[in-house]
Please model this.
Amino acid sequence: SKEESKEESKEESKEDYKEESKNDSDEDDPKSPIIALVQEFCLSTHFEQEFEEFAESHYEDFKDTTEMKDNTEHRLEYFDIYNTYLQKFEGKIENFLEKHGYSSKQFYGEAKKLLENDEIWTGEKFFVECLLATSEHDYFFKLMKNEMKRIDQE
Model:
């Protein structure tokens, strides 16, 4: 069917891209195949839906946060939910990397090189900065507050 053919073509393209990128030895090239791959995965509709489902499943826990001031002390259960979030979404990224022949160590190594290079200002660098920000509790809390507002508006 057309759908299967599209999917096979997409997979072949990913494999070609990955192979070309692995063979590219230009150290000065800011493009990182592993970063680009994770960026594509994290920006996918499926990944976004999973986050929205996660937020919706914790609506009762966070529904009162929409009016909270940023300097308000957080309840302990928010930290527990945050830890669950980290395990779930970091695990998804790690599984995705393994499925594509990479390790999380390789990803974090590339991310570190990218962040340490002050000469580079790319979408990939911005993505890595955002991804790291989501691993901080305060940023996670703001994300959840915004999701509660979105849910309330629906």
